[in-house]
Fold each of these.
Amino acid sequence: MKLFTVFVAILLAVYLLVVSGVLNSTKVRETFRLPLPEVPERSLLLPDLVVTKPKELYIRNVGEKKTIRFSTTFINFGKGPLEIIGHTDKKSNMTYAAQYIGEESGPGLYQDVGSFVFHPEHDHWHLESYVYYQLLAFKDGQLLAETEKKSFCIFDEIKQTSDLENVPTSRFYSSNCDRQIQGMSVGWSDTYLARFEGQELDVTGIPDGRYIFRSIINPERSIMEDNYDNNTADTVIAITGNRLEVEE
């Protein structure tokens, strides 16, 4: 009887040790079960490219070809600059372009936006597929004529405002238009005049009438922006023979 009591006591002690170990293990696991960290939204300093109505719009005839010549101005009203970095692959001789986007507290990020292409008529490098132009019927918006998606050299030309944050007092991105870096600072603008090569839309055979001339910046939305709703500017025009009038 005494041996049986001792045996039961030993079994009870073992049981208590096992239970205690399990509970302690559970407590340890609960102690180190840390909550998942909250990942804040990244405060990216995005550009906001706004295209304005052209200040120059006129008809030009060369032989039997009739074109609309036009200027293009866009402004960066965003929180950060538009900055494009080029990287040349020596094997393929291609210069790829990436947008660098800064952030308020962090390293920023890069995004592929296409490539830089050499523009022989301008003798410098352009970012491909940057702007696009259309002629639409005034009544129903039918597309009547369009350009290809055109390349562009990007730099700080004129400071338009100082009322935004992060506006530099002087030009930061130069007009060198090389394939290393191009960009536009906050509050600055860039303009292509109507006389520049490529600033034309073929309207040969288009009859006289009222039309909508449409300018579109960043047509493929390959460039990250804070707002895409202001990337289009429509201008109502009237064509009579070789005369073009802009309607307010």
Amino acid sequence: MTVLMKSDHLRIVRQLKRRALLVHLCGVLLVVGLFFYPYFMKVENDLIREAYGVVKLRIGEMDAKIRILEVLRAKTLTIRQGLDIADTVLSQRDIPVSMVLAIMDVESSFDSNAISPKGARGLLQAMPLTSRIYAGEFSKNIHDPVINIRTCVRYLVDLKRIYGEDWAKILRTYNGGPPNVNNKALDGYVRMVLARAKAYEVKVGQN
């Protein structure tokens, strides 16, 4: 017959209690884990989807940039100008890329140094008043592709707020000023820009 000393008995009891507590904690953690598992899986899946969306967006932007550069390669532009144009056009979301390229084509044939008889300047032919309003202190550099595009896109955004998606009115105003918003004599210009916008939409994959 084995006799346990009181001290040994207490030690064994403490060990059993610790083991019981450990088993209990493991059980609690397992239950909590099973309870929160769907939530953790949802968070992980959401993170994966978000990461995939970011990667997909970046790939789409790179593809669009390459397509624009392919279009600009045939123009009389330096590599730096081509990159600046592509980056600046793609950095805005308010005016369709194809529309910006079409206006640029019709207005200046992608010549950043172009000056019209009326004083319009640069790629998108910014008038002096437009330059002062939308470019401010940078208006003196209106021939710079980045400044010119940003200036004229801001003007186009304001016109779009006024006329909505009525591109005929937007383009008449852009080309002839607000007094010519309903001037049908400018519809040749409107048709030309819209036709080239449609062509650029196909080429660059951006509406």
Amino acid sequence: MVAILSMVLAFAWTAARGALVPVPPDMAAGTYRFENTGYDGQYYRYLAHDPSLQKGYSRYVDWPQMRFRRLLVPLAAWVLALGQNSWIDPAYIAVEMFFVGLGVYWCSRLLARHGRSPLWGFLFVAVPATLASFDRMLVDGPLTALFAGFLLYCEEEDWTRVWVLAMLAALTRDTGLLLGAALVTDRLLHSDWRRAIWYACSAAPAAVWYAYLAARLPRDGPVAILAAPAWGLLRRLFWFRPYFDPRVQPLIRVTDVLAVLGPKPNASAMRIGVSSTNARHAKKPKHRVTGPKLRSIIHRTAIMLEAVLRKRWQALTPPLLVSLSVSLVFGRPFLDITKGLFSG
């Protein structure tokens, strides 16, 4: 019920939403244009309408190989729509809402296993990646949902589902490859070569898709945020983009900086919940591997879950400050929606 309610609330916002970048001519008529420069979600929409790359939509994408690697959500929308062009956009929204509900469901189950109320699962909706995803149709939220399921099934030692989620995460976003890498690292540290190979195979579908893209698309140019060490990240943090109310801009930057400089949780929040003990030989995990540092969209989710599990409420502050920063961008749409509801 918590998961279903979260889906309804997320869809209510999406349904109410209703400088431009180029749009393929055959899709322009049905495209809603935001007032700024567009957003990543439009590129995944192009892939949903052309998963076999036959229509040349890559010409309208900034970094086509990087964007089109993120196949899972667009492909799921195409499959749900049975390939019917007029159904793909509604199907894409349905897939995004499904992942909101799935993430809340898995978080609720994980927290309930530790004696916390399932209502804490609503916290998944407050994760910055989730907020941004259901507003702009991104793939970050679905990846975060898969990570929540990954943690749950690692605790339940359901390794087949863990393998499937690692495979899906690799197809959702590049960062998802880290889930499989964590599993492989854990098995190698314990000289379990057979299972290490099995977990490594979870990346095979993504590798095949990457190879297909490399054969079909031109090589991407340099990604600006990675062009110079740390410079792109600093520029993103301190560059004030135009906003409808200049008084809100300082607040957005202050919350971002506080989130970066805020108190850090216990080191256990940085760990990936992978049991090193084979499920057939032990009932409880005795070790958790610390893998490579995860990208922030997953890392913040781990921090928030750990804070609730251990009742370390101060650890919620940094990720919730980022959520506040993200939600401030919803200010003008919220005012427009409210005005529209009460003006009729």
